[in-house]
């Protein structure tokens, strides 16, 4: 499969926020990552094939993802306070896929889903980065 270039500004699905909702951005972290380290991150488009709550966890959802390789990828993400599993099936998301597996609740998570966090009316909100469904699984973010 050819690597497809992805322009985030053109492809990220916009969320509509009511004008009456005061929104504040969380402060930037002070720790810097050098350019060479950042360039090693492999950001890919993934399609959610299945999503279920992880038993005995209040926060974790287990995603079964199509990452364009022909083999399903499992990623666990602590987003259950913000999403129900069934609303994420079929969505197109952004993930870092070259992280070492991390075991959580006895399940290996092979990557990390990208999200945005902000405050709204004094409450923390989280939005997974959702992309245009026309972008194929496995497309590389450049």
TrEMBL record:
Residues of the TRNA-binding domain: 37-142
Keyword Aminoacyl-tRNA synthetase: yes
GO molecular function term, any single one: aminoacyl-tRNA ligase activity
Coiled-coil features, chain-numbered ranges: none
Alphabetized InterPro entries for the sequence: NA-bd_OB-fold (IPR012340), tRNA-bd_dom (IPR002547), Tyrosine-tRNA_ligase_regulator (IPR051270)
Keywords: Aminoacyl-tRNA synthetase, Ligase, RNA-binding, tRNA-binding
PANTHER family cross-referenced by the UniProt entry: TRNA-AMINOACYLATION COFACTOR ARC1 FAMILY MEMBER (PTHR11586), TRNA-BINDING DOMAIN-CONTAINING PROTEIN (PTHR11586:SF37)
UniProt name for this protein: Methionyl-tRNA synthetase
Organism name: Eubacterium oxidoreducens
């Amino acid at each position: 499969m050819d690597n497809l270039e992805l322009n985030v500004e053109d492809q990220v699905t916009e969320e509509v926020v009511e004008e009456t909702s005061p929104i504040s951005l969380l402060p930037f972290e002070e720790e810097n990552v050098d350019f060479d380290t950042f360039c090693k991150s492999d950001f890919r488009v993934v399609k959610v094939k299945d999503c279920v709550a992880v038993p005995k966890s209040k926060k974790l959802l287990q995603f079964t993802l199509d990452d364009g390789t022909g083999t399903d990828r499992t990623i666990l993400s602590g987003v259950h306070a913000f999403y129900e599993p069934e609303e994420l099936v079929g969505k197109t998301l952004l993930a870092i896929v070259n992280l070492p597996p991390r075991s959580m609740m006895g399940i290996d998570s092979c990557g990390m889903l990208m999200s945005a966090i902000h405050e709204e009316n004094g409450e923390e909100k989280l939005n997974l980065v959702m992309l245009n469904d026309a972008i194929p699984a496995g497309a590389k973010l450049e």
